[in-house]
Amino acid sequence: MTEIIPAVLAESYDDLREKISHFSNYTKIIQIDICDGKFVPSVSWPMQMKDKSSIQNILNEEDGLPAWDHVDFEFDLMVKDAHKQFEFWTRLGVKRLVFHLEAEERELLKEFLESMDPYWRDNLEIGLALNTKTDIEEIKQFINLIDFVQCMGIEKIGHQGEPFDEKVLKQIKEIKGLYPDMIISVDGSVNETTAPLLVEAGVDRLVIGSALMNSYDVAETIQDFESL
């Protein structure tokens, strides 16, 4: 069964809480899109400096991410050199981290992953995202250091509602051909039309934003995607 991961892009902690409430009763994990205004033009929570109090409360363990007691979180780090802020992400409370290959200095990221504390190796999943234009040869040096690959289904990342880029279908097939045991997620423009194509290509996880946020029946929509 295909794993379905609802995705939220929030402007503030209150916005994050409201959006997570749409999905928290129907899923075990939610992806939070994190944008820094550098790697991508948009800025989202927790990179919004005007919302520092909510972040500090979590860091001080006075609060937690919304629904933290029954939902795990995946951070999609559309952030320049995100690995340098590793401690910050883990203190916010996260089950999976996705680093974007195009946002990182490759050698520094590789060194970081190679030297990661064994505790985090055992308790945190690491994903590597790549854009539709990126040659999959570039992930070769990271394959033994990551738990999954996230292919982007859109060319312009950092925004929900962007058009589907069919180049991702070829990417998925090539990655599965080379690394058949590697888990592949797809994020971006996943909907009722594109999801069957992605599953047929070999994807394991579908990260879905707009198609779930706009659904009148989230539980049924998730079940429909899972059954593909």
Q: What percent of residues adopt helix (DSSP H or I)? A: 25-40%
Termini distance? 8 Å
The tally of structural domains comes to: 1
Derived structural class = alpha/beta
Quickly name the level 1 CATH class.
Answer: Alpha Beta
Q: Shape, please?
A: globular
Please tell me the CATH architecture by its name. Alpha-Beta Barrel
Low-confidence stretches: none
Q: Per DSSP, what share of the residues sits in E-state strands of 2 or more residues? A: 15-25%
Global mean pLDDT: 94
Round the Cα radius of gyration to an integer and report it.
17 Å
Q: Which strand order do you get reading across the main beta sheet?
A: 1-2-3-4-5-6-7-8
What fold name stands as the CATH topology?
Answer: TIM Barrel
* SSE string, helices as H and strands as E: EHEHEHEHHEEHEHEHH
The tally of beta strands, per DSSP, is: 8
Largest sheet: 8 strands, parallel, barrel
Classified in CATH, the superfamily is Aldolase class I
Can you walk through the features of this model?
With 228 residues, the chain is of the alpha/beta class. The protein has one domain: Aldolase class I (TIM Barrel, Alpha-Beta Barrel), CATH 3.20.20.70. An eight-stranded parallel beta barrel has the order 1-2-3-4-5-6-7-8. The termini are close together.
